[in-house]
Design goal:
about 240 residues; alpha/beta; nine-stranded parallel beta sheet; PLP-binding_barrel; PyrdxlP_homeostasis; pyridoxal phosphate
């Protein structure tokens, strides 16, 4: 972090850049919601801040965002602390959206308010054992069954959801997915929505559908997404000098 960031001084050019990007993303969300007959209030914007500095998170916080996502424990542990120093008391919820090793569960729970990538019963159990208090989770779903890319097979979603829901240390909030390669986003997100509709018969509080990113958020919103995860369209291609 540079001296200005440590002192809480905002890079004016970067603030203008992020403000413009945020306005554009919010306009896309609003237009997608209008086309789907939905209210923009139904769709949360989750800023994917992985590889970007805490100074950027501070600017986004100043612009009104409160939900941020990271995918690496070491980077997130450092960044959440830096953000707290830059914006003491600012409201912020941190989401783990990367693949999580079971032995890292306790460390991730030190900073994550929600873990969005629970894709197995073993990982769910590891998180439950590490939790000092109930923790919110999403089940990560693989639409095409390719577990190498992360996610639990969609056809077996009820079993994992039931397992999570039985744990007193876990709070099942919903599901998350990434549109697979070789399948149109609309087809993938429609399949997810159908599965979630059935899931809610047994788990009515599992209301979150985290689907859609910079390139396909419109398709996701059309298919019922309640949370879009946006990185590139919001923050651009600038990266940390050292991860």
């Amino acid at each position: 972090m540079n001296q200005d960031a440590r002192d809480g001084v905002v890079d004016v050019d970067r603030r203008e850049e992020l403000a413009l990007s945020l306005a554009e993303v919010r306009e896309r969300i609003a237009k997608a919601c209008a086309a789907a007959g939905r209210s923009p209030a139904e769709v949360e914007l989750l800023a994917v801040t992985k590889t970007f500095p805490a100074a950027d998170v501070a600017i986004l916080s100043d612009l009104g965002l409160t939900a941020f996502a990271e995918n690496r424990d070491q980077e997130a542990s450092r960044k959440t602390g830096e953000f707290a120093e830059l914006r003491p008391g600012a409201p912020a919820r941190w989401h783990m959206v990367g693949s999580l090793q079971r032995n890292k569960a306790k460390s991730v729970l030190r900073w994550a308010d929600r873990i969005d990538t629970v894709d197995s019963t073993r990982l769910a159990d590891a998180i439950a054992r590490a939790a000092a208090e109930p923790v919110e989770v999403l089940v990560q779903v693989s639409i095409d069954g390719d577990e190498s890319r992360g996610g639990h097979p969609i056809g077996d979603l009820p079993r994992l959801a039931d397992h999570v829901a039985r744990s007193s240390e876990l709070i099942l909030r919903g599901v998350m997915t990434v549109a697979p390669l070789g399948m149109s986003p609309q087809q993938a997100f429609a399949a997810l929505y159908e599965a979630v509709t059935r899931l809610r018969d047994d788990h009515p509080d599992a209301t979150v559908i985290s689907a859609g990113m910079s390139g396909d958020l419109e398709d996701a919103i059309a298919c019922g997404s309640t949370c879009v995860r946006v990185g590139t369209a919001l923050l651009g291609s600038r990266r940390l000098a050292s991860p």
